[in-house]
Specification:
The protein has 221 residues and is an alpha+beta fold. The chain has 2 domains: 174 residues, no CATH class; 33 residues. The strands form 3 sheets. It has a 6-stranded antiparallel β-sheet with strand order 5-6-3-10-12-11, with helices on one face. Strands 1, 2, 4, 7 and 8 form a 5-stranded antiparallel β-sheet that branches. The chain is elongated, with a radius of gyration of 24 Å. The relative contact order is 0.20. One of its GO terms (cellular component) is endoplasmic reticulum membrane. It is found in: Endoplasmic reticulum membrane. It comes from Cinclus mexicanus (American dipper). It is a single-pass membrane protein.
Length: 221
C-alpha cells in the first residue's frame, strides 16, 4: 500500500505539448504541472527532436537576447539546410517559466521547423513523431523527494544565463506517454518524370530567352 501511494504521488507531475500554427514553421508549446511545489527550483523540459524537425540555433539566440525564451541545444551546431534523411536527432533543454494562473504550473514555447523529406509513393505527406518531453528539476537550495526524483545526466547549469553547475533531477515515474504528430507535405514519386520534364523545359525556355535578349540588346566588341 505504501508503494502504491508513493507511485500515485509521483505520477501527479504531468506534461503536455502542442504544435501551434500550420505548415513547415510551427511553435512547440510545453506545459508542466508539478505534483509538488518547487520553490526556488528551475524547471525544464528535455525534448528529443527527431531528424524531421529542428530548432534554428540563430533564431533561439535572438529570442534569448529579447528574453522571450531560454533554451540549450545539443549539439549546438545544426545544419538547418539538411533534408530529413541527412539529419540526426537533436536534444532541446527548454527552460520553463511559472504560469501566473497556477502555482505548480510552468510553460514555455520555442519555434520549430520541419525539414524536407524524400518523395513518397501513394501519399502526399510524411509523419514526424514527437515524443513526450522529460520533466527536469534543478533545486540548488532545496531537497526533492527521493521516491519521486532521481539524478539526471544533464551537463548544463540551472539557467541559460549562468555557468554555475547544478544537479538536475528527473521523475522516476514518467507521466502518461503522449506523442505529437507533425504532418509534412512531400512530393509523389509517380510525379518525378513529369517534374523532371517540366524543369528541363522551363530551364531550356528561360535560357533561350536570356540568349535572345543578349543577342538583341548586347554590345559585343
Amino acid at each position: 500500500c505504501v508503494t502504491l501511494d508513493v507511485q500515485a504521488a509521483c505520477r501527479d507531475t504531468t506534461v503536455t505539448q502542442e504544435l501551434l500554427k500550420e505548415g513547415f514553421h510551427r511553435d512547440l508549446l510545453v506545459k508542466v504541472e508539478l505534483g509538488e511545489h518547487a520553490a526556488g527550483c528551475a524547471v525544464a523540459a528535455q525534448v528529443r527532436l527527431p531528424p524531421g524537425i529542428y530548432v534554428d540555433p540563430y533564431e533561439v539566440a535572438t529570442l534569448q537576447q529579447q528574453n522571450l525564451t531560454k533554451a540549450v541545444l545539443f549539439p549546438d551546431v545544426i545544419d538547418v539546410e539538411a533534408p530529413e534523411y541527412l539529419a540526426r536527432d537533436l536534444f532541446l533543454l527548454l527552460f520553463l517559466e511559472p504560469d501566473a494562473r497556477c502555482s505548480r504550473c510552468f510553460r514555455a514555447a520555442v519555434p520549430v521547423h520541419a525539414r524536407y523529406h524524400r518523395p513518397a509513393e501513394g501519399t502526399g505527406e510524411a509523419l514526424v513523431v514527437l515524443e513526450s518531453p522529460e520533466v527536469l528539476l534543478c533545486c540548488c537550495h532545496s531537497h526533492l523527494s527521493a521516491e519521486c526524483w532521481e539524478p539526471a545526466e544533464v551537463d548544463t547549469p540551472c539557467s541559460s544565463d549562468t555557468t554555475s553547475p547544478c544537479q538536475w533531477h528527473s521523475t522516476k515515474h514518467r507521466p502518461a506517454h503522449e506523442e505529437s504528430m507533425l504532418r509534412v507535405p512531400v512530393g509523389l514519386r509517380e510525379h518525378s518524370s513529369l517534374v523532371c520534364a517540366l524543369t528541363l523545359l522551363t530551364t531550356g525556355l528561360c535560357s533561350g530567352l536570356i540568349l535572345a535578349a543578349a543577342c538583341k540588346y548586347g554590345h559585343f566588341s
